[in-house]
Specification:
- It is a single chain.
- By secondary structure, the chain is α+β, with helices and mostly antiparallel strands.
- Helices cover 29% and strands 34% of the residues.
Length: 231
């Protein structure tokens, strides 16, 4: 027996009818009354079309629910803090903490390429607690400069993060940029709360002995960025 489901009104009220009751309803309904006079074959096609419509409605509703769950999940991740992952043992000199250091060192694998070296993108180690917030990296190569972008979902010092950009020159220095969805001044305040002590000049070279580091903030395509560049 076919199970006909009628969607009545905007409130998605659903009523199940037997085939006989469905045909009686259809013959009484002025909008579809003519269908009860159709030959059996065409009435069967009409029944199948009606059932297919009901299945389509159910599929549509399930799709909406699934998308709503995914959007809610993404929004929730965007509000989760990443401070314990993106941490610095010594913010003034931009020395990364253990997990961030492992990420930075694990993004590129270097191999001899003639008289120079060639970098290959790898999937770096990320603690299980942060794997949903740290997305897969992508690589762009500009001459001897390698740029790895790691999309992020979360906050740092209360500011929404967009991504981590790691820059590495072949056989030379490198640096990192934390890109935020926040203005430059908000990034300055957040960095200073974390101990970076960004000056009013926006950047400062800090000598660590063998190799110093330049720490600062800048406008990056309309949003703020905190950066640390060797040398």
């Amino acid at each position: 027996m076919l199970d006909h489901r009628l969607v009545l009104g905007w409130g998605w009220e659903v009523q199940s009818l037997s085939e006989g009751a469905f045909n009686d309803w259809r013959c009484r309904n002025p909008e579809v009354r003519g269908a009860c006079h159709l030959p059996v074959f065409w009435r069967a096609l009409s029944n199948a079309a009606f059932a297919s419509c009901g299945n389509l409605v159910v599929y549509f509703l399930r799709t909406i629910v699934t998308l709503s769950v995914l959007v809610a999940s993404a929004g929730s991740l965007a509000n989760e803090p990443l401070d314990k992952f993106i941490s610095f043992d010594d913010p003034y000199y931009c020395n990364p903490g253990k997990d961030l250091d492992a990420l930075l060192r694990g993004l590129l694998r270097w191999e001899a390429d003639g008289e120079s070296y060639k970098g290959t993108l790898t999937i770096p180690p990320v603690p299980r607690a942060f794997r949903k917030q740290v997305q897969n990296p992508s690589l762009a190569v500009e001459g001897n400069r390698y740029l790895v972008t790691v999309p992020l979902k979360g906050t740092w010092q209360g500011l929404p993060l967009r991504s981590l950009l790691v820059v590495q020159w072949v056989e030379s220095e490198g640096g990192l940029f934390l890109l935020f969805d926040a203005p430059v001044e908000a990034v300055r305040n957040a960095a200073n709360r974390a101990g970076f002590r960004i000056p009013l000049t926006d950047s400062e070279y800090r000598d660590e002995g063998v190799m110093g580091v330049t720490v600062g903030i800048e406008d990056h395509d309309g949003t703020g960025a905190l950066y640390c560049v060797d040398g």
